[in-house]
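Hi V.,

You were right to ask for the full record rather than a summary. Here it is.
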Amino acid sequence: MFQKYDTIVVGAGHAGCEAAVAAANMGSKVLLATMNMNTIAQMSCNPAMGGVAKGQIVREIDALGGYSGIVTDETMIQFRMLNRSKGPAMWSPRAQSDRVRFGEKWRMMLEAHPNIDFWQEMVTGLIVKDGRCCGVRTGLGLEIESKSVILTNGTFLNGLIHIGEKQFGGGRAGERAATGITAQLVELGFEAGRMKTGTPPRVDGRSLDWSAMETQPGDENPVGFSYTKTPELTDQIPCHVTYTNEEVHDILRTGFDRSPMFNGRIQGLGPRYCPSIEDKIERFSDRNRHQLFVEPEGRNTCEIYVNGFSSSLPEDVQFKAMRKIRGFENAKMFRPGYAIEYDFFQPTQLRANLETRLIDNLFFAGQINGTTGYEEAGCQGLMAGINAHLKINEDDPFIIKRSEGYIGVLIDDLVNKGTKEPYRMFTSRAEYRILLRQDNADIRLTPLAVKLGMQGMEKRMQRVEEKQAAVKEIARFFRDFSVEPDLINSYLAENKSATISQKVKAKSILGRPHIDMEGMKNVLPDLHTFLEKYDPETQLLAETNLKYEGYIRREKEMVDKMNRLEQVRLHENFDYKGLGSLSNEAREKLTALKPRTVGQASRISGVSPSDISVLLVHVGR
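Predicted structure:
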């Protein structure tokens, strides 16, 4: 009935979809197994992609040949570049998506791929022989053979939904939990844990008073995520902002004794950076209000997502409190918010290529690794798909360095440090964030995808080379072009910048605070004429490189120093217990995690600088 596949991907959420596409575009024959074909790439929580650091990840996925950026651009209803008031390293793209169209577009793109087959059924176990994963077992008792398996189970592994004092099994509202896999993995020696996440109520937009809320429009000139040519966004739909108040908080407190979070029924670890409304009231008791973002779910639906009001309180308490929010006085609820507990596996049990240490050719990606968020899941799926293909073809693993991408930071953090709570990416987690901007992801990563042999990257690489050449031309012009005082001084004075008394190079003017290329272009005709042939994205990239040249150079020097440690390799069977000069904790952690390099060893929690010095001496450095 089934052929033997190169890779079976279990789960068709964001991680599973990217894993399937990545392996298929590398040339593998893939089977994507899901319990429900109608929920492929479903946005289980908020109808949005991107955000702080997450937007950078989506652009990196796109630069490597993944589909998340394309799907988002094709289905978004609003786009905003966040953190514009800060430096370019902090700029983060974010889009509101049409939730239904997002899933539809993903399914269409997956079904159009000749290397991807589908099977709709619960996978209940793995086929493991001689320490190697070679297929899956299904609820019907079928055995499907493959050379590798990628588990992307999301919140479905023994999922348990909580609403007040009610609890029932489920991986998502209206969908059953997945059973069998956790028990088998634990029997094989894996360490399992429990995590929790939550989602807010969905409400009927027709019942809200929009005039009572603040309007949050999209950008005047929306950009998008993909470096390919995707449709231009027009007719954006605004979001709105409102706030809770003391009366709302008082009503919510009446349900705390029936809250699964406060009465101890939920044992899982919750997200620190996306807490429930009851958690926010408890942790920030000095605040008399909390901000809520009222987000449309799509163009052709009245369903509304109440971002910031995640709750597992009894549904009657949620409803009563919600009606005291400004603009929600007559709100009708589609469904209440809920919390969900699910199994995860500590990611320190993985190698840097996301393959498990215990079982060869078995890969984990997404929330099974303790992460939260569509973007974090998608990038892990992409990397697992690529590495599953490389492993079965006996090629070296593909590992992105911390200095090359947020994807590298995320995976390096997970496999070296593990996580005690749902892991979410932030710009602050990246030590080289000036290098890892959203505007240069294609320059950083597309050449790596081409080198890997990812299908369909030739045209992308051509665009990257054209962009790099254009950026160099612009930089050369600014270094050579002299600016006349009588042309620029009025612009400088308007922006409270010192005027000039003689000709100076355009680069030195651009490097000043509050001065930008657009403003200079408006008062310097020759500059305007020169820049006309370049698109706005290329101009902005060139401007950023010129303005932050010194900072970029210093960060590259830091990268070079760290790369020296990355080049000092450690044998997988290195006897750390025999090194008496190491601390006890370092011996224990290094023996368990088996770092590939001294650089990786230096990032393991509990390994001190003195321990690294001991390692360097031992390997002759």
